[in-house]
Amino acid sequence: MTKKGYWMAMVDVTDPETYRKYIEANGAAFAKYGARFVVRAGRSTSPEGPTGNRHVLVEFDSYDTALACYHSPEYQEALKFRLAASTGHVVIVEGT
Protein backbone atom coordinates (compact mmCIF):
# COMPACT_ATOMS: atom_id res chain seq x y z
CA MET A 1 0.00 0.00 0.00
CA THR A 2 1.42 3.38 -1.04
CA LYS A 3 1.62 5.98 1.69
CA LYS A 4 0.00 9.32 1.05
CA GLY A 5 1.85 12.59 0.61
CA TYR A 6 0.96 15.82 2.37
CA TRP A 7 1.79 19.48 2.11
CA MET A 8 1.68 21.18 5.50
CA ALA A 9 1.81 24.96 5.37
CA MET A 10 1.85 27.65 8.03
CA VAL A 11 1.67 31.02 6.34
CA ASP A 12 1.46 34.62 7.48
CA VAL A 13 -0.45 36.48 4.77
CA THR A 14 0.80 40.06 4.41
CA ASP A 15 -1.08 41.06 1.24
CA PRO A 16 -4.56 39.47 1.09
CA GLU A 17 -5.37 40.82 -2.37
CA THR A 18 -2.30 39.26 -3.98
CA TYR A 19 -2.75 36.10 -1.91
CA ARG A 20 -6.21 35.69 -3.49
CA LYS A 21 -4.44 35.56 -6.87
CA TYR A 22 -2.32 32.70 -5.52
CA ILE A 23 -5.44 30.79 -4.45
CA GLU A 24 -7.01 31.29 -7.88
CA ALA A 25 -3.82 30.28 -9.71
CA ASN A 26 -2.96 27.17 -7.69
CA GLY A 27 -6.19 25.40 -8.62
CA ALA A 28 -4.80 24.14 -11.94
CA ALA A 29 -1.91 22.31 -10.27
CA PHE A 30 -4.04 20.94 -7.45
CA ALA A 31 -6.66 19.61 -9.89
CA LYS A 32 -4.00 18.06 -12.13
CA TYR A 33 -2.40 16.18 -9.22
CA GLY A 34 -5.59 15.20 -7.38
CA ALA A 35 -5.01 17.34 -4.30
CA ARG A 36 -7.57 17.18 -1.49
CA PHE A 37 -7.70 19.91 1.13
CA VAL A 38 -7.89 18.44 4.62
CA VAL A 39 -7.48 21.86 6.25
CA ARG A 40 -7.73 25.20 4.51
CA ALA A 41 -7.65 28.14 6.93
CA GLY A 42 -10.34 28.10 9.64
CA ARG A 43 -9.99 28.71 13.32
CA SER A 44 -6.71 27.82 15.00
CA THR A 45 -4.84 28.13 18.26
CA SER A 46 -1.06 28.22 18.56
CA PRO A 47 -0.29 27.17 22.16
CA GLU A 48 3.46 26.96 21.54
CA GLY A 49 4.11 30.24 19.74
CA PRO A 50 3.36 32.03 16.47
CA THR A 51 2.66 29.89 13.40
CA GLY A 52 1.15 32.35 10.93
CA ASN A 53 -2.42 33.40 10.27
CA ARG A 54 -3.28 30.73 7.67
CA HIS A 55 -2.80 26.97 7.96
CA VAL A 56 -3.28 24.42 5.18
CA LEU A 57 -3.00 20.64 4.96
CA VAL A 58 -3.24 19.16 1.45
CA GLU A 59 -3.41 15.41 0.81
CA PHE A 60 -2.10 13.62 -2.29
CA ASP A 61 -2.26 9.96 -3.30
CA SER A 62 1.49 9.58 -2.73
CA TYR A 63 4.59 11.43 -1.61
CA ASP A 64 5.89 11.42 -5.18
CA THR A 65 2.66 13.03 -6.41
CA ALA A 66 2.93 15.71 -3.73
CA LEU A 67 6.48 16.49 -4.85
CA ALA A 68 5.51 16.49 -8.53
CA CYS A 69 2.71 18.96 -7.86
CA TYR A 70 5.02 21.34 -6.00
CA HIS A 71 7.62 21.27 -8.76
CA SER A 72 5.10 21.45 -11.61
CA PRO A 73 5.12 24.48 -13.92
CA GLU A 74 1.52 25.18 -12.93
CA TYR A 75 2.31 25.41 -9.23
CA GLN A 76 5.58 27.26 -9.71
CA GLU A 77 3.67 29.97 -11.59
CA ALA A 78 1.12 30.25 -8.76
CA LEU A 79 3.89 30.22 -6.15
CA LYS A 80 5.11 33.61 -7.35
CA PHE A 81 1.92 35.16 -5.95
CA ARG A 82 2.27 33.40 -2.57
CA LEU A 83 5.87 34.46 -2.16
CA ALA A 84 4.94 38.07 -2.98
CA ALA A 85 2.01 38.07 -0.54
CA SER A 86 3.18 36.06 2.47
CA THR A 87 5.91 34.50 4.55
CA GLY A 88 5.74 31.02 5.92
CA HIS A 89 6.84 27.44 5.99
CA VAL A 90 5.79 24.56 3.76
CA VAL A 91 6.87 20.98 4.31
CA ILE A 92 6.06 17.96 2.13
CA VAL A 93 5.81 14.75 4.12
CA GLU A 94 4.91 11.11 3.64
CA GLY A 95 2.23 9.72 5.90
CA THR A 96 -0.65 7.32 6.28
Short description:
The protein is an alpha+beta fold. It has helices at residues 16-32, 63-71, 73-85, and strands at residues 4-13, 36-40, 54-60, 86-95.
What keywords describe this structure?
four-stranded antiparallel β-sheet; 3 helices; globular; 96 residues; Alpha-Beta Plaits; single chain
Could you explain the architecture of this structure?
The chain is α+β, with helices and mostly antiparallel strands and 96 residues long. 41% of the residues lie in helices and 33% in strands. The model has no long low-confidence stretch (mean pLDDT 95).
Q: Mind sketching the topology for me?
A:
Elements: E1 4-13, H1 16-32, E2 36-40, E3 54-60, H2 63-71, H3 73-85, E4 86-95
Antiparallel strand pairs: 1-3, 1-4, 2-3
Using the 3D structure, state the CATH architecture.
2-Layer Sandwich
Major beta sheet, strand line-up: 2-3-1-4
The low-pLDDT segments are none
Count of alpha and pi helical runs: 3
**Total separate domains:** 1
CATH level-3 fold name: Alpha-Beta Plaits
Name the overall outline: globular
Compute the separation of the termini in Å. Answer: 10 Å
- E-strand count: 4
